[in-house]
């Protein structure tokens, strides 16, 4: 029996909505649309998906560093610094709102983790932090020379932040993985690209260590080698699981068509995986070329004079292949978005929420990936294309900021919470462990009655 037709794989729910009342009038994802929420309700609806916004701001910050022309202009450095500091403040503000949500509504903590969709968005937090750390190592340290050019103390601090972020990413990924297996009920019709988030975050986590590896190697080659291997392991795990999930996503669309309008933005996650993996592997090749060969030990592989160049060539080749795959992914995402805007939105409504920022991060990474190709291939074509993509990312992000800020402070942009929406519609998801416990209890009760 196929997964799509299996009753065991489908999410089960029961409705608590009174039969006489029906859904609330004008209900849009759990709250009347275009109506300002009081702050208590805004906090209640402040989902992890809001970190899509900080992901977009963080990757936009890096665009000023990789503009291929007039790189040393003071105005670019100043704008980068303003964006970086602003994004840092927004991340702290969002963390405060997130903590307030679970302090004020403690029952939501378990409900969110047990929800098959909303739990995935916790991975947006480490994906917001990694570009900020790239900005610290490549921007504040090398570009601005904060604390001295390639300052050892500042670099160790960034290295510690990166290790902590990767551990956070691993924790979220493995908790989500466990929940998906033991708690969440799934159906091919309800599957979305949000499943990629926890594992795509591991790929993102690896990128910061990749860029720091050559800098760390100048101070301590052993620490540099550790950073390179840790980044390689993180990217390998994230990419392996993500490829498997993408295969399921394709099957879902082949069999059941496109996801609902509320989930259509997650289709950009495919681009995020392919281009982030491509750029990270591209940079890993350069990092290991700086580390290898080693001049100690008896390993014929690591001491071979050509080992660094071999890994360098392999990394560039894989990075280029994934850049080609990313072209398909970006066309795929744009076509799905076009369909959602012109077709699905007419039927279900396309509400502007934090999920609408989902395109900014992967598109910005694609711009950085293209810039990296220009560096490694010394290609004017990639430099020009990368510059164009940088500008598009900056302009697009600026438009999103203009649209988001007024609605955020008016309180009309918080109609996007899976758990709260389900409660408003009277939907309760059953879980694998709960159903298993009920089954065991029923069997034990039956045995007792027989005795």
UniProtKB/TrEMBL annotation:
Going by the entry's taxonomy, the superkingdom of the source organism is recorded as Eukaryota
User: What topology in the membrane does the UniProt record assign?
Assistant: Multi-pass membrane protein
Q: Where is the signal peptide?
A: none
Q: Which spans are transmembrane here?
A: 49-69, 75-97, 118-134, 154-175, 195-217, 223-250, 270-290, 310-337, 349-369, 381-405
Which residue stretches does the UniProt record annotate as biased composition, category Polar residues? 1-17
Give the UniProt entry's GO cellular component terms: plasma membrane
Which Gene Ontology molecular-function terms are recorded?
Answer: sulfite transmembrane transporter activity
Cell compartments where the protein resides: Cell membrane
Keyword tags = Cell membrane, Membrane, Transmembrane, Transmembrane helix, Transport
What broad class describes the main subcellular location of this protein?
Answer: membrane
UniProt-annotated stretches for the region Disordered = 1-20
| Assigned protein family | Belongs to the tellurite-resistance/dicarboxylate transporter (TDT) family.
Name of the protein in question: C4-dicarboxylate transporter/malic acid transport protein
């Amino acid at each position: 029996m196929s997964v799509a037709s299996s009753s065991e794989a489908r999410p089960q729910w029961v409705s608590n909505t009174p039969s006489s009342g029906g859904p609330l009038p004008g209900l849009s994802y759990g709250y009347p649309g275009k109506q300002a929420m009081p702050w208590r309700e805004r906090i209640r609806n402040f989902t992890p998906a809001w970190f899509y916004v900080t992901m977009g701001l963080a990757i936009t910050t890096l665009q000023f560093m990789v503009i291929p022309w007039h790189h040393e202009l003071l105005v670019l450095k100043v704008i980068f610094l303003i964006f970086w500091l602003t994004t840092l403040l927004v991340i702290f503000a969002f963390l405060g709102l997130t903590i307030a949500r679970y302090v004020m509504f403690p029952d939501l903590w378990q409900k969110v983790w047990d929800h098959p969709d909303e739990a995935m968005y916790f991975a947006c937090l480490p994906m917001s932090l990694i570009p900020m750390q790239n900005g610290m190592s490549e921007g504040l340290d090398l570009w601005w020379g904060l604390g001295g050019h390639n300052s050892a103390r500042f670099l160790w601090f960034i290295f510690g932040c990166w290790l902590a972020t990767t551990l956070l990413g691993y924790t979220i990924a493995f908790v989500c993985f466990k929940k998906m297996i033991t708690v969440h009920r799934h159906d091919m019709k309800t599957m979305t690209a949000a499943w990629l988030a926890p594992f795509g975050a591991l790929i993102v986590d690896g990128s910061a260590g990749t860029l720091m590896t050559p800098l760390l190697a100048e101070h301590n080659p052993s620490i540099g080698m550790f950073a390179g291997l840790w980044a390689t392991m993180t990217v390998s795990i994230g990419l392996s699981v993500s490829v498997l999930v993408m295969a399921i996503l394709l099957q879902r669309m082949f069999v059941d068509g496109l996801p609902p309008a509320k989930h259509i933005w997650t289709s950009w996650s495919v681009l995020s995986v392919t281009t982030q993996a491509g750029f990270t592997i591209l940079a890993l090749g350069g990092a290991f070329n700086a580390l290898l060969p080693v001049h100690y030990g008896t390993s014929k592989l690591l001491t071979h004079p050509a080992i660094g160049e071999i890994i360098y060539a392999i990394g560039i080749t894989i990075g280029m292949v994934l850049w080609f795959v990313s072209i398909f992914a970006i066309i795929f995402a744009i076509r799905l978005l076009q369909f959602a805007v012109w077709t699905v939105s007419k039927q279900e409504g396309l509400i502007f929420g934090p999920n609408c920022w989902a395109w900014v991060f992967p598109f910005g990474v694609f711009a950085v990936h293209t810039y990296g190709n220009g560096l490694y291939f010394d290609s004017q074509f990639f430099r020009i294309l990368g510059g164009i993509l940088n500008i598009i990312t900056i302009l697009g992000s600026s438009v999103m900021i203009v649209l988001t800020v007024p609605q955020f402070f008016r309180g009309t942009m918080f109609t996007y919470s899976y758990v709260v929406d389900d409660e408003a519609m009277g939907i309760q998801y059953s879980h694998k462990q709960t159903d298993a416990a009920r089954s065991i209890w029923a069997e034990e009760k039956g045995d007792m009655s027989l005795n």
